[in-house]
Design brief:
By secondary structure, this protein is mainly beta. It has one helix at 39-42, and strands spanning 12-16, 19-23, 48-52, 56-60. Helices cover 5% and strands 25% of the residues. It is globular.
C-alpha cells in the first residue's frame, strides 16, 4: 500500500471561514494543508472535501495518518 508523504510532523493551526474546503491527503501539495491537485501525479490519492460551518481555529492533520481526517488526532506523536 502506498503511504502519503508526511507533510509535517504535527498539525496545521488554521483559522477557517465557513465553506467547503479541500484537505490534501497525499502530503505533496505546495499549499498544505490544502489540496493543490498534486495527488494527480501519484494517481492513488484524492483530496478530502469537508465543510466548515463556522469561523474558528482548526487543527488539520499534517502527518496525513489521522483517524479523524482532516482533523489532527495526535497520531503524529506515534510516528
Amino acid at each position: 500500500m502506498n503511504e502519503p508523504t508526511i507533510a509535517q510532523k504535527g498539525p496545521y493551526e488554521v483559522v477557517l471561514e465557513p465553506g467547503i474546503k479541500s484537505w490534501c491527503t497525499c502530503g505533496e501539495s505546495k499549499t498544505q494543508p490544502f489540496c493543490d491537485a498534486s495527488h494527480r501525479e501519484k494517481g492513488i490519492f484524492r483530496s478530502l472535501k469537508f465543510e466548515v460551518k463556522e469561523k474558528d481555529t482548526y487543527w488539520l492533520c499534517g502527518c496525513k495518518r489521522t483517524s479523524t481526517p482532516p482533523f489532527c488526532d495526535g497520531t503524529h506523536n506515534k510516528i
